[in-house]
Write a structure and sequence with these properties.
This protein is of the alpha+beta class. Helix 1 packs across helix 5 and helix 2 crosses helix 10. It is globular. Strand 8 and strand 9 form a beta hairpin. The two termini are 24 Å apart. Strands 3, 4, 5, 12, 17, 18, 19, 20 and 21 form a nine-stranded mixed sheet that branches. Strands 6, 7, 8, 9, 10 and 11 form a six-stranded mixed sheet that branches. The chain has a four-stranded antiparallel sheet with strand order 13-16-14-15. It has two domains: 311 residues, no CATH class; 63 residues, Dna Ligase, domain 1, CATH 3.30.1490. This is Circularly permuted ATP-grasp type 2 domain-containing protein. InterPro entries: ATP-dep_Glu-Cys_Ligase-2, CP_ATPgrasp_2, UCP005522. Pfam families: CP_ATPgrasp_2. It comes from Paludibacter propionicigenes (strain DSM 17365 / JCM 13257 / WB4).
Length: 438
């Protein structure tokens, strides 16, 4: 069997050869880098997985029901479960989506739910990603390469196969497809951080990888322009472009990434879009606070998976607690993502604490505060030595006729021994996630 060091180096060389990279925009510059793979897998027992799976299905079902409700009847607001201000002040809320119900009433077809495991063994949800969650391709290709360089690894361990992710995506596309039209993945292009994933999933799922110029809307119907300008009806678009850039006539007028009049075709039910527009209102970090209440409201059940203990400065009691305990909390800007806008009170000096105090007092809706979860460290290879680093798990939940959880996931880890932030955009790495069959 390959040594761990040799396996790591070989897999990373293969991935570099295949162009498996992660792109980052910072300071107006685009930089591509290898997303480093660690050979020691995260192993999740069958017993643990059953609880995680049930909790994820429950959570995503409630979030889909919330999205349908919030853009239509708004019962959860009328009943006082979520303050109206939290909906309409969310940067992810799109007034243009009012009254629109997507094909088969599914809003979040592909949900990326970020979890950590506390040191007492409990799994805790840190974040819901319902817009364009990325990262599934990395464990897929890493597993494929590992099979090549160390084929005995998966013969000797009863691990769920993770090669079915593209099949799950294709089934979700088939389920919501309008009039059996073409199925496309819409990419903003190679300068997107996840472009490798767009092209990889299109190939594996057997669907078309399309750029904005490949699509045209005529008579509120979307067409794909193929060879010799042949036009074919599009039934479903798995979009990898942010809402605001998706249609320059409906949102950001300067966008060159979107398709003019796509919103009209979508609103009229002539094309399905995965994930639906306007999903950002449900993965707003402020709305996260209310997800356990959503589960009770829509499903009549207690949440199986818990949130991290969270405080909303919007509420006076919570604000008072946060301001009195800043040094022991983590403060998050609800509009940021990718590990940005996350501040640990223990790392701030007096000037920084005074500044964040002022911001919380003047813009309470902008912030949440959480108790710091001392989640488990996992072993990684640092050079030729084993060391421990903080790691999370992004689980992928697919919603179609029924909600399913992919028997794999993206385990990310920080390479900084003192950091709790594991995001790839912050320079972290990833490892395979083994879900055990028994």
């Amino acid at each position: 069997m390959y040594s761990l060091v040799k396996q790591r180096d070989t897999v990373n060389k293969w991935m570099e050869r295949f162009g498996v990279r992660f792109g980052i925009y910072k300071g107006g510059n685009f930089h591509e880098q290898l997303f480093p793979f660690d050979p020691i897998p995260r192993v999740i027992s069958h017993k643990d997985w059953l609880e995680i799976e049930a909790g994820l299905i429950q959570r995503v079902n409630a979030l889909n029901m919330f999205l349908e409700d919030v853009y239509n009847e708004k019962d959860i607001v009328k009943k006082g479960i979520i303050p109206e201000e939290f909906i309409y002040s969310s940067s992810g809320y799109l007034a243009q989506c009012e009254g629109i119900t997507p094909s088969k009433k599914i809003f979040s077809h592909i949900s990326g739910i970020d979890l950590v495991q506390a040191k007492d063994g409990k799994w805790i949800v840190l974040e819901d990603n319902l817009r364009i969650p990325s990262g599934a391709s990395y464990p897929m290709i890493a597993r494929t390469v590992t099979r090549k360089v160390s084929p005995e690894t998966f013969k000797e361990n009863a691990v769920f196969d993770n090669r079915n992710y593209s099949t799950l995506i294709r089934k979700a596309m088939d389920y919501v497809n309008i009039d059996n039209g073409l199925e496309v993945i819409l990419t903003p292009g190679r300068y997107n951080s996840a472009y490798f994933e767009h092209s990889y999933l299109a190939e594996k799922a057997g669907v078309i990888l399309a750029f904005a110029d490949d699509l045209i809307v005529e008579n509120d119907t979307v067409y794909y322009k193929g060879l010799f300008d042949k036009r074919e009806r599009v039934g479903v678009i798995y979009r990898r472009i942010s809402d605001e850039y998706l249609d320059p006539l409906a949102f950001e007028s300067t966008s060159l990434l979107g398709v003019p009049n796509l919103m009209r075709a979508y609103a009229k039910g002539n094309v399905a879009i995965m994930n639906a527009l306007g999903n950002g209102v449900a993965d707003d970090k402020g709305i996260y606070y209310f997800v356990p209440k959503m589960i009770e409201f829509y499903l009549g059940e207690k949440a199986i998976l818990q949130n991290a203990p969270t405080y909303l400065p919007y509420y006076a009691d919570d604000k008072n607690y946060v301001l009195a305990n800043l040094k022991t909390l983590v403060i998050k800007d609800v509009a940021e993502a990718g590990g940005y806008g996350v501040m640990f009170g223990r790392d701030m000096n007096d000037e920084q604490l005074a500044n964040i105090t002022r911001l919380i007092e003047t813009e309470p809706r902008r912030w949440i505060a959480q108790e710091i979860i001392d989640f488990i460290d996992l072993e990684i290879m640092e050079g030729e030595e084993k060391v421990f680093r903080k790691s999370d798990l992004r689980a992928f939940v697919i919603s179609e006729a029924e909600t399913k959880v992919w028997h794999s996931g993206l385990t990310r880890y920080t390479r900084n021994p003192t950091s709790f932030i594991v995001n790839s955009s912050q320079g972290g790495g990833f490892k395979d996630t083994w879900i055990m069959k028994k």
